[in-house]
Write a structure and sequence with these properties.
23% strand; alpha/beta; Arc Repressor Mutant, subunit A; 293 residues; Metallo-beta-lactamase, Chain A
């Protein structure tokens, strides 16, 4: 994949396009790059998309960036806490309507720990679905349902600029983590194809700089996932394998901080392969292994 990787600076307000301003939250990490990108859309009456993590410093920066304007809407692409954590405080400070992703359905069984990344405080005034539109100032936003990274993930198309706010679905700096049970590889691939069917000219991701050639980049993303799938199948061709063995084979030189995430994405690929009848699960040395079908 060859999209240029801008490194936006946290706390710096940038006029990204005629209708889009970007303010990056101060939450850099191996999973968030330089921080979560919060977008301010419109002039005068504005929407804030993905307000970011629960950070008083970021709240103060957003209020300063919109001084003299009215924040009428808060939009959320998905309920991971680095995207929606500040929504309640921003709503309380502004009286804005909170719109976007539906609330996450939390698990109660052994997979409950995987819910930790989701925001339990998030409560939208209205959940948006496919085709729902929001118009204000000279901005028209259309909702696109794009599950995969998260079951409730949305993108927002800015019609006047043929651009899309893509949240964590498509990013120039990194591929998305697909972590079951909430993440779903089959849904993710279908959501990529949904964006491929469009003719947008720019993507504004939830982390990192813009994707400036969406058609080419989406083609590369799909190819990357198919290559990863092929590497997993090649490992299974040599015999039953566990997820750690597959990760070690398919992700050489991986940053140790990302090993768990790679394991979850590998599990998502394996679940998709099993759904398609190309792999099966079986016990191996008292553990969980997978084999080629």
């Amino acid at each position: 994949m060859s999209e240029a990787q801008e490194s936006p600076v946290a706390g710096v307000l940038t006029q990204a396009s005629a209708r889009v301003r970007r303010l990056v939250a101060p939450n850099p990490s191996a999973f968030t790059f330089t921080g979560t990108c919060t977008y301010i859309l419109g002039q005068g009456e504005v929407a804030v998309a993905d307000p970011g993590p629960d950070s008083d410093a970021h709240l103060a920066a957003l209020m300063a960036a919109t001084r003299g304007e009215r924040i009428a809407f808060i939009l959320v692409t998905h309920t991971h806490r680095d995207h929606s954590g500040l929504a309640a405080k921003l709503k309380a400070a502004t009286g804005a309507q909170l719109l976007g992703a539906r609330a996450h359905v939390f698990h109660t069984g052994p997979e409950k720990g995987l819910d930790a990344s989701h925001d339990a405080t998030y409560a939208p005034d209205r959940a948006l679905g496919e085709g729902d539109a929001l118009a204000f100032d000279d901005v028209t936003l259309t909702t696109l349902e794009t599950p995969g990274h998260a079951a409730n993930h949305l993108c927002f198309a800015l019609e006047e600029e043929k651009s899309v706010l893509t949240g964590d679905h498509v990013m120039a700096w990194s591929t998305s983590v697909i972590a079951p049970p909430d993440g779903h590889m089959g849904d993710y691939m279908a959501s990529l194809e949904k964006l491929r069917a469009r003719d947008d000219v720019t993507f504004w991701p939830g982390h990192g700089g813009p994707v400036t050639d969406p058609a080419r980049y989406l083609r590369a993303l799909v190819g990357h996932r198919r290559q990863r799938e092929a590497a997993i199948l090649a490992r299974l061709d040599s015999g039953v394998a566990t997820i750690p063995e597959i990760v070690a084979s398919a992700y050489p030189g991986l940053d140790p901080r990302l090993v768990k995430a790679a394991g979850l994405s590998t599990l998502a690929h394996l679940q998709d392969l099993m759904r398609r009848g190309l792999a099966a699960q079986e016990e191996r040395d008292g553990g969980e292994g997978y084999r080629r079908v």
